[in-house]
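Hi support team,

I submitted a single chain yesterday and got back a structure, but I'm not sure I'm reading the token output correctly. Could someone confirm the output below corresponds to the sequence I sent? I've pasted both exactly as they appear in my results page.

Thanks,
R.
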Amino acid sequence: MRPMLETVPAASRVSALCVACCRQFVRAIRSNASTRWRIAAAGVFAGVGCMLASAGAVADASGGDPNLAQARQLTDQFARSLKQELKTALKKGGAANAIEACHLKAPDIATDLSDASRWEVRRTSLKVRNLEDAPDKWEAAVLERFEKQNAAGADDDEMEYSEIVAGKNGGRVFRYMKAITTQRICLKCHGEKIDAGVRKQLDSLYPFDQATGFTEDDLRGAFSLSKRVE
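Hi R., thanks for writing in. Yes, this is the structure output for that exact sequence:
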């Protein structure tokens, strides 16, 4: 017998889950209306909760796989949030300011999405800026796959990969990666010619930086998401 949730129409599931998320948001505000971080956290919970509910409604576009739909939704949220932070930082203080924003904001965005969704959300690359983002064996193999696809002229949307693998401590883990190609906005900090002031700041924040020398449309790295499945 299928779980009860699967017998409910997608639109009904979305409505029910979104209502539940909004209730959580209201409870958080009432519990301590003067505490700003509680309200912010509740907002993230509600936003991601509704996003994941929407993923269930569009699962048909992912071959009916809700895990793939959720991974795509989270990746899109991560990409849009980080891009907005970088654009704002560039307008305010140029490339040096964008480096600082990426250094501080990118980990926060990943952590917030991970905490709210119960997925592990991160970025990785074959040429990392932060050693903590170095790929594991599975991620490295997928990145090599993306490199070949990109060299063959694949569209960005084609460069994604998902698989259920054995977990380190037993069980099964759904893993997903989506390629990140180098955009023009990235070249000021990741390109072949980097301003001396920007280079100085990079050396200060990332003493083991490998993430330079890119040109537009090169594979920069990938979003990497994982979640335990029963």
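A quick pointer for reading it: Residues 8-57 form one domain. Let us know if anything else looks off.

Best,
Support desk
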